[in-house]
Design goal:
Blueprint: E1 3-10, E2 20-27, E3 32-36, H1 43-51, E4 58-63, E5 66-67, E6 75-78, H2 90-101, H3 105-118, H4 134-147, E7 152-156, H5 164-181, E8 184-188, H6 192-198, E9 201-206, E10 211-217, H7 229-244
Parallel strand pairs: 3-8, 3-9, 6-7, 7-8
Antiparallel strand pairs: 1-2, 1-4, 4-5, 9-10
Helix pairs in contact: 2-3, 2-4, 3-4, 6-7
Length: 247
């Protein structure tokens, strides 16, 4: 899989200036890429363009050589809110994406249980959604996204609504899952620490420049530890980039 973003600009109707301008980026197969920047820099807009939920004003986005012109089965989005259906129990929620995608019913149960085990939620398969904590609901949402086996998983600040302890646990679990599956992930976050913990590369978007300020490769072994000296150095460097881009 290769995702190429070429000279992409996005300006919304009635806006005086673009939200994004001249974005150029290439994402390789199996890469975990994080995007950081302060509010208003266009992080979620960029994700929505890749998802096909928005259309570029200029430039193009190519996935495996084909232009992205709308939502597709080769991409799946996991948002900040879990977007689970309260009238469905856990396993029924996990199956939902497969039902829409036309996955044969004979495969749905096996796939759903496989990914529920992966996110440590198999024991809760028959629980109603209202009985789950916020972190457990996000695990279910992650399992649902993974069942679709898409080319790329798009994640828009999926842990930002969780308390810090739960968010840290979810980061660890996501890293472990990614290391096992080697799935391509495009991950939006406002947390520089989270980006350094998860990413192969961190893209810094600047609200002032409306574009990519820097792309920083994180040359650290996994699993990573937030108190390592080199980890802290990366965190400080990226924080400085984010702050300079917002002056």
């Amino acid at each position: 899989m290769t995702l190429i973003i070429k000279n992409v600009t996005k300006q919304f109707e009635h806006a005086q200036e673009p939200t994004l301008a001249d974005i150029n980026l290439e994402i390789a197969d199996g890469e975990f890429l994080c995007v950081v920047g302060k509010s208003g820099c266009g992080k979620s807009t960029l994700l929505n363009l890749i998802a096909g939920l928005e259309t570029p004003t200029g430039g193009e986005i190519l996935l495996n050589g084909k232009a992205v012109t709308g939502p597709g089965a080769d991409r799946v989005v996991m948002f900040q809110e879990h977007a689970l259906f309260p009238w469905r129990n856990v396993i029924e929620n996990v199956k939902f994406g497969m039902e829409v995608a036309g996955v044969p019913k004979s495969q749905q149960e096996e796939r759903a249980l496989h990914y529920l085990r992966m996110v440590q939620m198999e024991a809760y398969r028959d629980y109603p959604i209202h009985q789950l904590s916020g972190g457990m609901r996000q695990r279910v949402a992650l399992a649902r996204a993974l069942t679709l086996d898409t080319e790329i998983l798009l994640m828009d600040e999926p842990f930002s609504a969780l308390d810090k302890q739960t968010a840290n646990r979810m980061r660890r679990e996501l890293q472990e899952i990614w290391m096992k599956m080697n799935r391509t992930v495009f991950f939006i976050t406002h947390s520089v620490e989270e980006a350094v913990y998860l990413a192969d590369r961190v893209v810094v978007l600047s609200e002032k420049e409306k574009s990519i300020r820097d792309v920083i490769r994180i040359d650290l072994p996994r699993p990573r530890h937030v108190y390592d000296d080199v980890f802290v150095e990366y965190r400080h460097r990226i924080l400085e980039e984010v702050q300079d881009g917002e002056e």
